[in-house]
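Database export, one record per block. Field names are fixed; values are copied verbatim from the stored entry.
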Amino acid sequence: MKRFAYLLFIALFALNVQAQQAKYVFYFIGDGMGVNQINGTEMYIAANQGRIGIEPLLFPSFPVATVAATYSSSNPITDSAAGGTALATGVKTYNSAIGVDKDKNRIETIAEMAKKAGKKVGVATSVSIDHATPASFYAHQERRQMYYEIATDLPKSGFDFFAGSGFLRPEQTIDGKPAPSIYPMIDAAGYVIAHGIDEYKAKAATTDKMILVQPEGATRVDCLPYAIDRKPGDLTLKQITESAIDFLTKDKKSKGFFLMVEGGKIDWACHANDAGAAFEEVIDMDEAVKVAYEFYKKHPKETLIVISADHETGGFALGNSNYWLYLENFKSQKCSIEEFSKKVTDYRRDHQRDASWEGVKALLTENFGFFDKVKLTWAEERQLRDAYEESFVNNNIRFDQSLYSSTDPMATAAKLVLAKSAHIAWTTGGHTAGYVPVYVVGAGANLFMNGKVDNIDIARNIAKAAGYKFTN
């Protein structure tokens, strides 16, 4: 009798563990999203409501929260490749590595583990599908710059759904040599490419493998537009997340899914030290998380949602003098610094003979609220006027280079003045070693309740929560 009771207890315990396993896993990665990017966004929203404090986003309100260290095996400060690989595999590696360890040996990703476990798998991003973070989940290459080689790994993965802006180098190897197009390879592997949401809706029902990219004629192939610059018809991270869930759940007999979604342009905005664009990108990722959370509410005992980042970008500081912030100033920013740079360039072209300070001043007022809603000190006004004199009158035009953009000196001056007026600051145009946040809700969230973690612990905990066979 005692033996029977013991066996019954073991059986019930096993059933309970199985019931708590995450059948559905969402893994959101805010590239470059440190603690201050999130705190600053919540304070920015509150400031726009006319009050001091925060207006909570959804994902920072998840019941389990901690921080993670991000160093790589080769550097105190990681890049997105090593950071993405650590988040995808639970293994530290050298900067620039994609899905390989420090000795350049292939390492299995949790997305690949999920596929082996019979799950549907999706990898999505707001930048190119062959960029470092998404690539870390399906590719295995020695260098992140091997975009063509990374893209050829995509059809080999057998994953069910991919989404992003497109591919950076579909017909050219890293050394610049022409190569067979990746598109016939993708087609031969059974993937259907949908350009935009309308094509997705038309094609999704008749294929088992989908790649969702931007609509035809998109301005850039390397990324979706910044949220602050978005126009009607642009593909969004929210739409990508909705489509991924729709596609990965259309087979009612499936064993569940694993979905990684990257908010990639948080990082791009922070590389450019563009706080206004960064705040809107964090809000945009939160909109995508809300889609996952609605799914979670329908399947609370079977769904795990994890939010983290590969590193912090920019050394973003909330405060650079006295005890005040004026984040409401960013409410008047109507476009990214990159987009404003294009507007200044257009003005230069269209007004080669009659460009004036009044004309440039009108541009600054229209796009940043300067001289109107955003009050400037004499020194800040002088900084803008000096930039005009140097670049328009003296014709000394030196573009400011960041990792993903190049900006007109007038746009650079506007960025610096806006930051100064709001009392925020940046220490770098690159990455830092700062802790990144980790937020969790759902089945297996208890695995993240042991205090500070390392980035490699996140993949290991997800695998454990979902019951994947972890091999690394």
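Remark 1: Residues 275-298 form the longest helix (24 residues).
Remark 2: The chain has two domains: 22-317+430-466, 327-422.
End of record.
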